[in-house]
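ligand=adenosine-5'-triphosphate
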Amino acid sequence: MTGIPRDHPRYESLITREKIIDGIHMGITSQQGLVAQGRGEAFDYLIGERTTESAAFAERAAVAHILLAKNPIISVNGNTAALVPESLVALADVTGAMLEVNLFHRSDARVHKIIEHLKANGAGKVLGGKGDKRLGLSHDRAIVDEEGIFSADVVLVPLEDGDRCQKLVEMEKTVITIDLNPLSRTSLSATISIVDNVTRALENMIQFAKDMKHDSRESLQEVIDSYENNKVIPDALYAIQEKLKQQSEERGIQWI
Ligand code: ATP
């Protein structure tokens, strides 16, 4: 990592960029991942680089779903492996979910590098290396493990692409997404749409899981029943509008 000073006003975002670039050098992140990160960063700026109250509700409901699931799977791509390997492992550990590597720009070499990277960060068994089932999509994100995503009842898919998200929903799985763009096909089609940075979302979810893991099934079900995913997108758009308004006013620009 380069020496970015801690007091730099954009420290977090610069460190995040460095992690993605390191991921590319390590052969776990694709170059396209850099572009995806840029898009996410732009939306994070608009949302105010914070977890909104609405996103926190979604994260709590997501954790309740994972804790109640029979076969919960956390899907890992090249960006999340570079950005949050320890958090992915910690969330899997505390909830009992399995990790599965699943890539849009797939090569066996990259899948195995990510599996090794997760193991170096404390993971036990990691799925994704078999790729013995297809989901009926033309691209490589269709390739999944039979014992993993294919048979999962609940799937957490951070930074997912819209096609596969829709396919997983069609298969009647509970699909939890983490995507900073509230208008992406992914956010619009998920069962639980977490509009937050994956770095913050996973940290929050680990804490929620620690707090909730001994709760009764009834009380976890209540968290799910009281959650309304159709409010998440309007809430995120409202947060963006308010942020833009505030920024405009601070800079003496008239808000229309
Ligand atoms: P869709 O197919 O759902 O419309 P897309 O084609 O717009 O998605 P992709 O390139 O497949 O986007 O995936 C990148 C998505 O991940 C973008 O919506 C981007 O906002 C989001 N994203 C990127 N980095 C992060 C991050 N660190 N945390 C959360 N979301 C992120």
